Description:
Layout: E1 6-8, H1 15-22, H2 31-35, H3 38-48, E2 59-61, E3 67-68, H4 85-117, H5 121-141, H6 152-178, H7 181-188, H8 191-201, H9 209-228, H10 234-257, H11 265-287, H12 289-304, H13 307-330, H14 335-357, H15 363-383
Parallel strand pairs: 1-2
Antiparallel strand pairs: 2-3
Helix pairs in contact: 4-13, 4-14, 5-6, 5-11, 5-13, 6-10, 6-11, 7-10, 7-14, 8-10, 9-15, 11-13, 14-15
Amino acid sequence: MMMSSVKLTASSPFSSAFRSRKNNKLPNVQTRSQLSTLPTIQIAKQNLGHSPFFTHKPLHLSSSIVCQAYEADRSRPLEIEIPDEEVAKKLKMGLYFASWWSLNVVFNIYNKKVLNVFPYPWLTSTLSLAAGSLIMLISWATKVAEPPKVNLDFWKALLPVAVAHTIGHVAATVSMSKVAVSFTHIIKSGEPAFSVLVSRFLLGEAFPLPVYLSLLPIIGGCALSAVTELNFNMIGFMGAMISNMAFVFRNIFSKKGMKGMSVSGMNYYACLSILSLLILTPFAIAVEGPKLWAAGWQQALSQIGPNFIWWVAAQSVFYHLYNQVSYMSLDQISPLTFSIGNTMKRISVIVSSIIIFHTPVQPINALGAAIAILGTFLYSQAKQ
């Protein structure tokens, strides 16, 4: 049982009802008899106002004398849960990091497979940049990705960054052609030490004491791993060291020269790949040359078969993809988070390469790697 109050919804009291009766627009409606019931309803409201069955939800009477009643429990608005933006952001970052690490692991595996049977790191590096450049040019031409709006000043500022990037990329590839992937990445985990030393002595930048202290485990761990490395090679060691130095200058040039350049991380790395490809190609031809490449290619095909072509394509494409994702993540996260993610990336690459290639590792060598990576993590914390 439910009773409700009555309310006439009209522009003025009873105007719509009387106007409708006068104009004969509401046939068979006895307005006077209906209005005469209002006092009775008001009395009922007063008498039953304290009844548990009484609701204060109004009974609306429109100009057409149509009554609609709503039960209180059915008139409440539906509760719609709005997704938490913070949770969505964390999921997005988790996807970025998972893609970054997995793509990097796949690249290093195929890169090492190629270099084991095709020891020409200059051509391998060139193919990596060429694949990325081709992917982005097609993406821009087909409007899959928005082309960057750049000018001559942008390319001038990008040139020293591209030179450093080219040197670092080739040096790392040379290193991996001579030593195990795990050893190259252990040495490359010492990059923060080079960053601090270059910034301190060449740029005059000072750092707090915890930053300098964090360099001790980095340098000590890398040295311990180098001394105890079973397959130590000086060219491989120096390649990793040169790569560290080059990437430090790449970051410095990028920070100084690219201020005010509004280019997304994806397009920034695409332009960097294109310019690096133009720089690297003539040097790769001069150092190795088409004759060596042709002979080495035929030998690799005879040993591996058609799968070798897939290895080359995979290492080239995955190199671009993992770098592209890392630059895209820089648009979304802080430098501290990126440094931590880079540290975890090194761990995933080192562990996976040891498992896949069955790299012999002594306990003292593993201890050195762990100390170096721990120092890298401490550096990322102290730097902030």
